[in-house]
Amino acid sequence: MPSNIAKRRRSKAKGVQFTVMVVVLPHKECDNPESAVVETGVSIKPVNVDIEEDGLRISLTIVDTPGFGDSVDNDLAFQEIVTYLERQYDDILAEQSRNQA
Q1: 35 part of a folded domain
Q2: Does the residue 17 lie in any domain?
Q3: From CA 41, how far away is CA 76, in angstroms rounded?
């Protein structure tokens, strides 16, 4: 059996992983200036969903970032998102390194 056919069969059995991050800059109107300076920060909320369509398993992760854009200065919120993405990348790289060894 050719290796590319074997790889396709393994990937179909194993499934596909897909991640979407939702970062929205909201438009807010505020009538009270005292409440306008309250900065709650960003929270990162991943939600995992497993879907099977025509025998193909899909592991979908949707990462929501409520609170992003609520502050006047979003540098800290942006850094939290970058840190999360770097941590995810490091985890995937470590997993792939273990699988190749």
Answers
A1: yes
A2: yes
A3: 8
Say how many domains are in the chain.
1
pTM over 0.70: no
Strand-pair category, 56-64 with 45-53: antiparallel
Integer Cα distance of 68 and 40 in angstroms = 9
Where in the sequence is the domain holding 30, given as residue range(s)? 7-100
1 inside domain:
no
pLDDT tens digit string along 25-58? 666 666 676 665 566 778 889 999 998 888 888 8
Residues 54-70 have pLDDT tens digits of 888 889 999 998 888 77
For the chain, state the CA radius of gyration: 20
Could you tell me if 23 and 81 are in contact, meaning their C-beta atoms sit under 8 angstroms apart? Answer: yes
